[in-house]
Amino acid sequence: MAEEAILGYLEKNEQISDSGNFAAERGFDHNDVVNVIKSLHGFRYIDAQDIKRETWVLTGEGKKYAAEGSPEVQLFLAVPAEGSISKDELQKKLDPAVFKIGCSQAGKNKWVEMGKQVSRKVQNVEDKVKDLLLQVQNGHALSKEEISSLKARKLIVPQTWKGYSVRKGPNYAPKRKKAATDLTRENLQKGDWKELEFKEYNFNAKGQPAEGGHLHPLLKVRKQLKDIFLQMGFEEMPTNNFVESSFWNFDALFQPQQHPARDSHDTFFLEEPSTTRELPEDYVERVKRVHESGGYGSRGYGYEWKREEANKNLLRTHTTAVSSRMLKALAEKPFAPKKYFSIDRVFRNEAVDRTHLAEFHQIEGLVCDRGLTLGDLIGVLHDFFSRLGMSKLRFKPAYNPYTEPSMEIFSYHEGFGKWVEVGNSGMFRPEMLLPMGLPEDVHVIAWGLSLERPTMILYGIDNIRDLFGHKVDLGLIKRNPICRLGIS
Ligand code: PHE
């Protein structure tokens, strides 16, 4: 608005002699006009010359009297029109400063008779001081005497007013050309790039603050683990199916159908769709047989295996369900050794507490090759965990339905000063691998651990609910640093 007014005025007039008057006449705020002048001057649309004027502004006291009246008038009005008032009485009616100044000024003006009793000497008075103050406030000029009287009473102080006089500049145009910020396809096609004025780069401008993009600690640690697996030559398994059939999650892993983990107290079963649509029938047959009566040198479990149990859909309880699918797929081709890993979510129907959630992330690694031994497993675990910064390991015999032997992995935690359990591992059983059709001398070593545990240790979080779920403090996610694995 002010910009149009200034450029428009200069189209027909030589100059704007005083930006203050220019603003006042048009009802603009002078500060806005000054900003526009500075900007137009910068682009040389106009030439602006500083002008300065000494003006007067009201002090705090001056503003008070401009609103409430001068002390002498306030005092005069407090004295009754007829008769008199005692000085003490009068003092009580007024503010102490107003009383003090009022007495001396009203006395000087011969408005009142001052003694023990105070009475009026004139009928009416005019508040000249208030009028003058209002004039100063409204920017009107006062005479020298008027100024010096207000100044003497410290009701006004001088202030330098700054403004501009303005003429056309070398780039004058009645309307500002908007400088282009981008060279567009249209500019090139139409050829108007020749006339366009481009905005200059401002290398000092600050970039926009990044609004989001804070990685969750679990994602940061996952990335580092992924890198470790990749450096060790492992391939990532596709884990994008949270829903799995009991068959792949349990049966294929030689986990008997009466196993407590297959109870709804431990596993989330799906209501809809409650069963899987298809399973590889000939393989299902071999799995059924190995559960019921064994084979491959095993006695099996000796129970009646039920297809309905295997069909039940669930939220996978471990990523080993994916490993079983991947190994079965490997068995279908001429054998080639493989190293696989995955890091993804699993679900367990557990009571939630400081260390347990009903869903968490599992890190899983496996190596599949001919002639692998427990020594290979121990070696790979040492390699893997030392890359996480855990080089002191111990193993404890354990039990998994699908591995034999099985080992719990412990690592010495320097900070805690004790051995802590960090994972579970083992060699997949022949009852799992042979029905898949893998060659007899192919062995699979595997291990699993949670992603939450190392993340909590790295980030010093002692309640898992502070790390994952609806109670997470987003501020913590924004502030948390990168904590490097291996540097503990
Ligand atoms: N699936 C096991 C678990 O849920 C981890 C594991 C993976 C154990 C591979 C042995 C071999 O704890």
From TrEMBL:
<dbReference type="GO" id="GO:0000049">
    <property type="term" value="F:tRNA binding"/>
</dbReference>
<keyword id="KW-0030">Aminoacyl-tRNA synthetase</keyword>
<keyword id="KW-0067">ATP-binding</keyword>
<dbReference type="GO" id="GO:0046872">
    <property type="term" value="F:metal ion binding"/>
</dbReference>
<dbReference type="InterPro" id="IPR004529">
    <property type="entry name" value="Phe-tRNA-synth_IIc_asu"/>
</dbReference>
<dbReference type="InterPro" id="IPR002319">
    <property type="entry name" value="Phenylalanyl-tRNA_Synthase"/>
</dbReference>
<comment type="similarity">
    <text>Belongs to the class-II aminoacyl-tRNA synthetase family. Phe-tRNA synthetase alpha subunit type 2 subfamily.</text>
</comment>
<protein>
    <recommendedName>
        <fullName>phenylalanine--tRNA ligase</fullName>
        <ecNumber>6.1.1.20</ecNumber>
    </recommendedName>
</protein>
<keyword id="KW-0479">Metal-binding</keyword>
<dbReference type="Pfam" id="PF18553">
    <property type="entry name" value="PheRS_DBD3"/>
</dbReference>
<feature type="domain" description="Aminoacyl-transfer RNA synthetases class-II family profile">
    <location>
        <begin position="220"/>
        <end position="481"/>
    </location>
</feature>
<keyword id="KW-0648">Protein biosynthesis</keyword>
<dbReference type="GO" id="GO:0009328">
    <property type="term" value="C:phenylalanine-tRNA ligase complex"/>
</dbReference>
<keyword id="KW-0460">Magnesium</keyword>
<dbReference type="InterPro" id="IPR045864">
    <property type="entry name" value="aa-tRNA-synth_II/BPL/LPL"/>
</dbReference>
<comment type="subunit">
    <text>Tetramer of two alpha and two beta subunits.</text>
</comment>
<dbReference type="GO" id="GO:0005829">
    <property type="term" value="C:cytosol"/>
</dbReference>
<dbReference type="Pfam" id="PF18552">
    <property type="entry name" value="PheRS_DBD1"/>
</dbReference>
<dbReference type="GO" id="GO:0004826">
    <property type="term" value="F:phenylalanine-tRNA ligase activity"/>
</dbReference>
<dbReference type="Pfam" id="PF01409">
    <property type="entry name" value="tRNA-synt_2d"/>
</dbReference>
<keyword id="KW-0547">Nucleotide-binding</keyword>
<dbReference type="GO" id="GO:0005524">
    <property type="term" value="F:ATP binding"/>
</dbReference>
<dbReference type="InterPro" id="IPR040724">
    <property type="entry name" value="PheRS_DBD1"/>
</dbReference>
<dbReference type="InterPro" id="IPR040725">
    <property type="entry name" value="PheRS_DBD3"/>
</dbReference>
<keyword id="KW-0436">Ligase</keyword>
<keyword id="KW-0963">Cytoplasm</keyword>
<dbReference type="InterPro" id="IPR006195">
    <property type="entry name" value="aa-tRNA-synth_II"/>
</dbReference>
<dbReference type="GO" id="GO:0006432">
    <property type="term" value="P:phenylalanyl-tRNA aminoacylation"/>
</dbReference>
